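Render this sequence as a predicted structure.
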Amino acid sequence: MNINQYYHEIFLPSNVAVSALRRAGLPTSLERIKETRITWEAKLKDLESFVEGEAAKVGVVVKYSKAHALSGVALGNILYNGLGLDCKKRTPSSKTFPQGQPSTDDDALGDYASLSNPRPDDHPVATAILKIRSLAKGIGTYLNPFAEATRSDGCVHPHFKWNLRTPRLAAENPPVHQIPERADKEVADAIKRCFIPRVNPARNPE
């Protein structure tokens, strides 16, 4: 298939369909978004209290911010200095830290806990830290933008962008294509439940 055929036979018809999807919008339930946010905020409070309490037991004083975040240094003190976990990954070297610093990103914590594939020996503190990140991202990246982008017709109308090489679609305002399917099924399922059918939406999804 040459570029002319691709343009007329694939790209144009697809673009018409995507434009129609954007005009129609994706129906959302502001009630479900609000209920989910309240539930997650309560979970975050409990999880943050747990991490702070476990840190205090090993002599590390930390306090989560209002944005549900702790610095990498604070997390490193909890995990590697306080709890004695083995540091298997370090951050890239820099002038200040030529050897890098103990990494506390999701990949590093993956040696000790997993939300997508929980294991019997997962460390409870590492699990809690990953869950806090997942819930906080769910609120900040999805629930809040979905609520803000919902128009008077009860729908969000994302802006779709084509990647002409692949071709793949990306969406923004809000990012409906980035729901974290694999990282945390609980969060992904709850976010998807905020989208509702156009006809007779179920009051409580099963």
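Summary. The two ends are 45 Å apart (CA to CA). The mean pLDDT is 88.
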